[in-house]
Structures are given as C-alpha cells and as structure tokens.
Design brief:
Blueprint lengths: L1 H22 L10 E6 L5 E2 L5 E8 L2 E2 L9 E8 L16 E3 L6 E4 L4 E10 L15 E5 L1
Parallel strand pairs: 2-9, 4-5
Antiparallel strand pairs: 1-3, 3-7, 5-6, 5-8, 8-9
C-alpha cells in the first residue's frame, strides 16, 4: 500500500513539474516579429552620467501592458550590459533588465563613462520571452 502511495505521489509531482515548465515556456510569437532600437544608433556616443533617450521599435507585433494576455502582443525589456536571459524563465528585473510593463516605447537612461551594450527583449503578459524569442540586435554605445 505504501509503495503505491509513494509511486502515485511521484507521478503526480512529475506531472505538476511538467505543467509548470509548459506554462513557463512563453507565449507564441507571431511569424517574422522583431524588435529594434530606433535610437541611439550602434556605435553612437551618448552623454555620460546624463539622461539620454532610448526608443524602442517593434515590427509585426503589438505592444500590450504586463498582465494583458492578447495574441501577438508583449511589452519591452531593455537589457543593459548583459546577455539574453533563459528563454523559458521570467525575465529578471534589476539594473541590467529594465521592464516596461505599462507598454512604454521609449525611456530615458543614464550610463557611467565607458562602452555599454543595449538590447531589447519582448516579454509576454507574465514577463516570459515569447517562443521563439523576439529581440533586437545588441548595440554598443559609448558614454563620454
């Protein structure tokens, strides 16, 4: 009897783990969708320690705030000096992963002197990258 209960518990926990993974897999992305940084341009010099504008572009997909589950939409995340996070997990929220869950399409940021990378990544209503992920080319800016 105890062996049966243990096996049933093991099977149930495996099924739950699979369901959790499936939910974290991300929302389907529309075919051909891509994000891009409209400003600044790759290689551009930006003011160090002063705010400058970054604007986000998106093609073949719409913008919707976090929590809004609507087909072919998502919201922007600006990645600063970091690589793309795992595609099957929620996008972190820290100084290197800025969330724009209200549906913003531009922001003001400030960087210390030096070379920095910027990249956009779209997240679904739960901040998980779409499948396949929708992201921009990584650009480099020089803060002087």
């Amino acid at each position: 009897m105890y062996k049966f209960i243990a096996v049933a518990a093991l099977v149930a926990s495996a099924a739950w783990g699979t369901a959790d993974f499936a939910m974290a897999a991300g929302t389907p992305a529309p075919s051909g969708a891509y994000a891009y940084i409209g400003y600044p341009n790759d290689g551009q010099v930006v003011p160090a320690n002063k705010p400058f504008r970054v604007w986000f572009g998106l093609r073949f997909m719409g913008v919707a705030p976090k929590g809004v589950k609507y087909p072919n939409t998502g919201h922007h995340h600006l990645l600063i000096d970091t690589d793309l996070p795992p595609a099957d997990q929620e996008i972190p929220s820290d100084r290197n992963h800025l969330h724009f869950g209200a549906g913003e399409t531009e922001t003001m940021i400030q960087l210390p002197p030096g070379k920095h990378t910027l990249q956009l990544l779209m997240g679904d209503y739960m901040h998980v990258p779409h499948q396949p992920p929708v992201y921009s080319k990584k650009i480099t800016v020089i803060a002087r």
